[in-house]
Design a protein that fits this description.
The chain is an alpha+beta fold and 193 residues long. It has a single domain, classed as LURP1-related (Porin, Beta Barrel). The chain is 16% helix and 42% strand. The protein contains 3 helices and 12 strands, in the order βββαββββββββαβα. It has a 12-stranded antiparallel beta barrel with strand order 1-2-3-4-5-6-7-8-9-10-11-12. A hairpin with a 4-residue loop joins β4 and β5. The longest helix has 19 residues. It is globular, with a radius of gyration of 16 Å. The two termini are 31 Å apart. InterPro entries: Scramblase, Tubby-like_C. This is RNAse. GO terms for molecular function: phospholipid scramblase activity. It holds the Pfam family Scramblase.
Amino acid sequence: MLLDRKSFFIKEQVQFMKFSGRYDIFDPILNTQIGFAKEEPGALVHFLRLIIGKGMLPNKINVCDTETNSIAFTIKKPFTFLRSKVSVYDGAGTYKGYFKGKILTLGGGFWVFDSNGNEIAELKGDWKGWNFNFFQNGKSAGTITKKWSGIGKELFTSADNYMISLDEGEYTQDKIILLLAAGLAVDIVYKEN
């Protein structure tokens, strides 16, 4: 199952004139698809994306497990001007936590909070803009690294491929949901134009 893993390879599907994206999620060890993430922003937001930047508009991303054929979790971002509070819900619709973006950082990043408002991780980017590290209590808890699939594809499309890896240790399903959601949010919520 999708949430039984600690490593995820994310591959954005290339689409011409896309108004919503789809991201395939693979097990990097078995090289099999284990899930996908699909933006479902709504009809009005599709239209507004023609005139307003995507980063300001609300968005909903459903992350589905291909084995169970069900929603594993949902990421919801409200309309925002500067810094958004992105919420995460499990497949049953239960609130699991949120992300709070940093305003002034060179490499980008945000904090990850559980449903009780406790900070469970910090996500920090490097100055180059596409390598991120998860930190828990000042210690490394995982990484997000960009995986180049070929210079031609990366230059002429906006498709991204990247790896989300959690370090060894005990992770509850709620924590895996929040950290995988944070990894996906780097691209879908914070980086996409």
